[in-house]
Amino acid sequence: MSAALGPVGFILGGGLLARRTVEAAVDAGRAVRVVVLEGFADPADYAPFPHIVCRLGAAGRMLAWLRAEGARQLVLVGRVTRPSLLSLRPDAGAAKLLPRIGMKAFGGDDSLLTAMLRVLREEGFEPLGCEQFLTTLQVPTGQLAGPPPDEAARRDIRRGVRVLDVMGPADVGQGCVVQEGVVLAVEAVEGTDAMIARAGTLQREAPGGVLVKLLKPGQDRRTDLPVIGPSTIRGAIAAGLRGVAIEADGCIVVESEETRRLADEAGLFLIAIRPAEWMGDV
Q1: Residue 25 and residue 241: Cα distance in Å, rounded?
Q2: What are phi and psi of 15, to 5 degrees?
């Protein structure tokens, strides 16, 4: 059945999640065709797979190659910093696509990705979510590592859930850090690791803050799922945080064993939650 579907195409930014998604697709019996985005992903990581390296503005070349390779299903995954329009230098194919994306290109990430998915469908591709191949990297509700959060930490989790619920419609970010009810930082274009480091410089003399990382309300699960891994836990430890709360069945945990080990050794709690169950008063 996998062969009948043809190869699955990937347009990849940086980070471990991108590589793990390609490997998981291969393990599932799918042939893959990989577009490595220049400056974001390392081509050496994808040397075993059929691939090309393209700058971000070369969408015409990317889609033409994927079509020629018979890839009709397509996954977008990995970290990409959005360039300015002047630095994008769109090729002829991208220049034709940009008007169809329109002003969404200047909105938040979800706005842009939603517009891109629509255009890809119009171009004859079927967008897939990385979670289709990474079901084993999502986690159910419950304590994953470290001690259970005490009541003060639970209040900070509830506060973080409410903050992200309010931020969601503004399409800003997927995470925030809360300490004793004070929002120290919210995630924007800098990404989770930089946000954690920034929060560490703002903490007060009190029990450490809590990172809350969730899907945005209404977020399209085919793109940009929340991700944590060992680097998240190392950053949280360095910043003096005492715990991390993620969305059950909505957040990808890469290198899960190492992630849990680091949290356990540091005495930092890691818990998977259902946001709707944490929307009470704070």
Answers
A1: 35
A2: 105, 160
φ/ψ of 271, rounded to 5, equals: -135, 140
Q: What digits encode the pLDDT tens for the residues 9-29?
A: 999 888 888 898 999 999 999
All domains in the chain, ordered by first residue: 2-132 (3.40.50.20), 138-278 (3.40.140.80)
Can you give the pTM of this predicted structure? 0.77
Instruction: State the Cα–Cα distance between residues 49 and 68, nearest whole angstrom.
Output: 16
CA distance 18 to 1: 24
Phi and psi at residue 248, to the nearest 5°: -60, 135
* pLDDT for position 163: 94
